[in-house]
Automatic annotation (TrEMBL):
Keywords: ATP-binding, Cell cycle, Cell division, DNA replication, Nucleotide-binding
Keyword Repeat belongs to the record: no
GO molecular function terms noted in the UniProt entry: ATP binding
Keyword Protein transport part of the UniProt annotation: no
A Pfam family: AAA_16
Name of the protein in its database record: ORC1-type DNA replication protein
Native source organism of the sequence: Haloarcula pellucida
Every AAA+ ATPase domain range: 116-286
Residues that bind ATP: T128, G129, K130, S131, L132, Y285, R297
Length: 489
């Protein structure tokens, strides 16, 4: 990641006009109408122009001289934290989530009195404000609780990188200890999960009157044991039971957050009986809402450095997937950083287009680097079909034929079609691909149609970094795909 959190302390000379439109309306800028200038981006391993310049200069300048020279260059970004996706912005910068803000506030405010707030299930696509709203409400509750001498705490964990229940419980222990300012008294490894639970409840009971557990991306905590009883279900059971049993003095509430609307279907009946959450849905943002979100953060930049097109275009690009505010903010930040690096006076449309290319590649890279070779083959085959088809989508039946061709070509194990479909379905959790069930008519069978959140060409290019996939000729794959598409009729 190329985040740079350093802050500019210098003041940029004030300019007379702020030329960014403020009407919140779409300016009609369409990312697809682009004949985008495909300037090479500095993905890892590639040398950018500024790096080359840097090398040339290094022969004649000392590091100190260069640093001082860079320091004298005017930056365009004044307040980088406003463009950091993990920074919890002030309430007046939150746009378009009034309903959810009200619902979550209404339910969690119970913590201010002498009662247990309900459990919540917040669901919707990534970047739609689930974490932001939860954090903002908890921050406010905490501020009100302090003068009232209510020991209120929030324990947040992102479950994405936690493999097992034991690891997750230890993470909760360590966050709870941090929040309470006490020492953890159980080792991380070599003890039963039960001991970690005991330690968690000891810390909770001794240090908090009211506590909200925020479990982000909870559906990712599957664990290794029993797929029928995933680790997140066991975690929910224990936490919500502790909350409901009355064994602890502390009021416990659990906020489960997921992109997967169907997550609750995988929660076992035992956990469901004690978890029973209130649901809050977070829908996609449209381009206008994304524009409004970006406008409330445009003061991240110095006055008069954003061209009129920048915000509408970044919003339009982000709205193309599913209206992800994180992506819109990322685009504006990366565009600003590119402009700064290129020594430009203003951020313009070309910087946003370049940023879109870079952000998309980074996201795809992040996902595909972590998946197994078999999943890569499934994804490659499906993206290859989508890249050639007129609709930009790929049928599972056609994708599977191409997958068979790929596995034969590199002599890899070959899944049955059902497993191929399941692997593709698993990839939907990353918002890279989505699917719909379709059929040609009453007499023909069902198939899934996969649609891609990112451009199939970018996915293919990224997957070709895998040496096994690179072995297969792109032309051969394309001709197999074309033949299969003709067979679809
Ligand atoms: N309504 C909004 N107003 C202002 N900023 C927003 C809004 N919604 C989201 N953001 C910003 O977008 C970024 C992503 O939001 P957030 O982390 O809340 O998404 P999420 O729905 O929890 O996504 P994920 O499931 O990927 O964690 C954050 O930087 C957040 O500040």
């Amino acid at each position: 990641m190329d985040t740079d959190d350093s802050e500019h302390s210098r003041d940029r000379p004030e300019s007379s006009a702020d030329d960014v439109t403020r009407d919140g309306q779409s300016s009609g800028v369409s990312p697809s109408a682009s004949d985008a200038d495909q300037t090479p981006v500095d993905t890892e391993g590639q040398t950018t122009e500024s790096e080359t310049e840097f090398e040339a200069q290094s022969e004649s300048q000392s590091i100190e001289e260069m640093l001082l020279e860079f320091d004298e260059q005017e930056g365009l970004i004044r307040e980088r934290t406003l463009l950091d996706p993990n920074y919890v912005v002030e309430e007046d910068r939150i746009v378009g989530r009034d309903e959810q803000l009200q619902e979550v506030t209404k339910m969690l405010r119970v913590a201010l009195g002498d009662n247990r707030p309900p459990n919540l299930f917040l669901y919707g696509p990534s970047g739609t404000g689930k974490s932001l709203i939860t954090k903002a409400v908890c921050k406010n509750i905490s501020q009100i609780c302090e003068p009232r001498d209510i020991r209120f705490g929030t324990i947040e964990v992102n479950c994405q990188d936690l493999d097992t229940l034991g690891v997750a419980v230890y993470e909760l222990v360590s966050r709870a200890a941090d929040e309470a300012g006490v020492e953890v008294q159980v080792p991380k490894h070599g003890v039963a999960t039960k001991e970690k639970w005991d330690e968690l409840f000891r810390i909770v009971d001794e240090n908090f009157d009211s506590l909200v557990f925020v479990l982000d991306e909870l559906d990712m905590l599957v664990g290794r044991r029993d797929k029928q009883d995933p680790a997140f279900s066991r975690l929910l059971y224990q936490l919500s039971r502790a909350g409901a049993d009355g064994e602890l003095e502390t009021f416990i509430s659990v906020v489960a957050i997921s992109n997967d609307t169907k997550m609750m279907e995988s929660v076992g009946s035992r956990a469901l009986s004690s978890f029973t959450p209130e649901d809050v849905h977070f829908g996609d943002y449209d381009a206008n809402q994304l524009q409004a979100i970006l406008r409330r953060r445009q003061d991240a930049f110095y006055d008069d450095v954003l061209d009129d097109d920048v915000i509408p275009l970044a919003a339009a690009f982000a709205a193309q997937t599913h209206g992800d505010a994180r992506k819109a903010i990322d685009l504006m930040r990366v565009a600003g950083e590119l402009a700064e690096r290129e020594g430009d006076e203003r951020v313009n449309e070309a910087h946003v287009r370049e940023a879109q290319d870079k952000v998309e590649k980074n996201r795809v890279l992040e996902v595909v680097r972590g998946i197994s070779t078999q999943k890569k083959l499934c994804l490659y085959a499906t993206a290859a079909v989508a890249a050639e088809s007129n609709s930009g989508a790929a049928r599972s039946t056609t994708g599977y034929k191409v997958y068979q061709f790929l596995t034969d070509s590199i002599d890899a194990d070959q899944y049955h079609q059902e497993t191929y479909v399941n692997k593709m379905k698993e990839l939907t959790t990353y918002s890279l691909v989505d699917f719909e069930r379709r059929s040609h008519g009453p007499s023909s069978g069902m198939f899934l149609e996969f649609q891609f959140g990112e451009s199939p060409a970018t996915i293919l290019e990224t997957l070709r970094e895998d040496s096994r996939i690179e072995m297969v000729s792109q032309d051969e794959v394309a001709s197999v795909v074309k033949a299969q598409l003709r067979n679809e009729g």
